[in-house]
Structure formats: structure tokens, C-alpha cells
Amino acid sequence: MPAENEFNQARNSGTMIVGIILSAGESKRMGTPKQLLPWGKTIILQQVIENAQNSRLDKILLVLGSRADEIAAKIKVAPTTKIVTNQDYKEGMSSSVKCGVKNAPTETEAYMLLLGDQPFISPEIINTVLAGYKKSKHGIVIPVYDGKHGHPVIFNVKYKQELLAIGDRGAKVITEKHAGEIMEVTVNASEVLTDIDTPQDYQKAVDMAADRQKKDR
């Protein structure tokens, strides 16, 4: 695990946007830790981590919970990434959001919430959402595909206390309350709407990735 001082050292003197990877769930519907499922030459969570680390995010917090030690032993992270454990993971994803926000460096200007079961969210998609945030004065930035909101989502630090107070409905209560403060960034990637919860979801995602790879050749 990277040294604390390496993580807390700012990459530059500009704004610090911290990516929070939410990966503490129990994978009940999958029946096995989905973070460890094969994905190309690696595993799902490692791909998510590498995509975030290869983006323009300044720092990354990886929130683990269920079977944290087992999962941590099978991944590698860069010095700009810090692993934190959500002891309240059984309370749902909202508890992981809170854990990530609490552990973010004090100089954080904004949080990007990334899902640990979206290995197809490329550095380019992440950077597109980041660019939208940096160019706008909006406090919330959400990628949109086919008129539908997806992930990853950025929240300015001014919503910190509201993020720390979310319940079962998650951060959706904040986006509903502050609808006028949202900037939508249109992306040509249906992947922002897709996550992996069941074996069927996993197979569809693997097939989608294979199709995408063929098109990129």
C-alpha cells in the first residue's frame, strides 16, 4: 500500500479532483466477489483501478469492504491511490460514498464517484467528464448517453455534508435537490449506463467488450 505522505502530496497546485472507487459490496447477486472476476488479461477491479490511474484524476480512493483483505491481496495500486476499508459496507453503497468522502484529502475540490463494477469506463470517458467539470461552473457533472444519466459523477466539495448524510437512495437525493446545478456531458458510450450485478450482466459485459475491441481494430 502506498505511503500516506505520497498519497496526500498534491500532484499540482491546481484543483484536486479525487476519484472514489466504490467496491465494498458483497456481490450477493453474483454469488462470488465480482471484483475478482476475469476481465481480459486482468480482473474487473484491477481494470477499474488502472483506468482511473491512467486518467487525469489527481488522487484515487479505493473503498473496499466485504472480503477486503482477500481482494486487496489480488490488486496493485499506484502511490496516488489509497485503499480504505468501509466497516459499514452491509449498509449499502451510500456507506462507501461516505467512507470515501471522509478519507479524501483536505484540499479536495471535487469527488468523482466511480463504480467498482464498471471496468469499461475508460480513461477517455473519465477525462471527458473531468473536462466538463473544469470548463463549467456547475457543482455536479453527470455523463449522459441516449438521454439517460450514468457514471462516473462529479460532486463539488460544497456538497460534502450532504454526501455524508445520504441514506438508502444514495446521491440521487442530491442530484434531485440540486437539479439546476447539474451539467450534463453527452458521451458516445453506452457503457456509462452499464454495471455488473449478475452472471448474466457479466457475460453481456464480456461480450460488449469483445465487440468493442473488434470495432477498434
Keywords, separated by commas or semicolons:
217 residues, alpha/beta, Spore Coat Polysaccharide Biosynthesis Protein SpsA, Chain A, two-stranded antiparallel sheet, 8 helices, 33% helix
Give a topology summary.
Layout lengths: L3 H5 L7 E8 L14 E2 L2 E2 H10 L5 E6 L3 H5 L8 E5 L7 H11 L4 E8 L7 H13 L4 E6 L2 E2 L3 E4 L3 H4 L8 H6 L4 E5 L12 H18 L1
Parallel strand pairs: 1-4, 1-6, 4-5, 7-10
Antiparallel strand pairs: 2-3, 6-9, 7-8, 7-9
Mean pLDDT: 92
CATH architecture: Alpha-Beta Complex
CATH superfamily: Spore Coat Polysaccharide Biosynthesis Protein SpsA, Chain A
CATH topology: Spore Coat Polysaccharide Biosynthesis Protein SpsA, Chain A
Q: Number of DSSP helices?
A: 8
Helix content range: 25-40%
The proportion of residues in beta strands is: 15-25%
Count of distinct structural domains: 1
Backbone CA Rg = 16 Å
What does this molecule look like?
The chain has 217 residues and is an alpha/beta fold. The chain has one domain (4-216): Spore Coat Polysaccharide Biosynthesis Protein SpsA, Chain A. The protein has helices at residues 4-8, 44-53, 68-72, 93-103, 123-135, 160-163, 172-177, 199-216; strands at residues 16-23, 38-39, 42-43, 59-64, 81-85, 108-115, 140-145, 148-149, 153-156, 182-186. The strands form two sheets. Strands 1, 4, 5, 6, 7, 8, 9 and 10 form an eight-stranded mixed beta sheet that branches. A hairpin with a 2-residue loop joins strand 2 (38-39) and strand 3. It is globular and about 40 Å long. The termini are far apart.
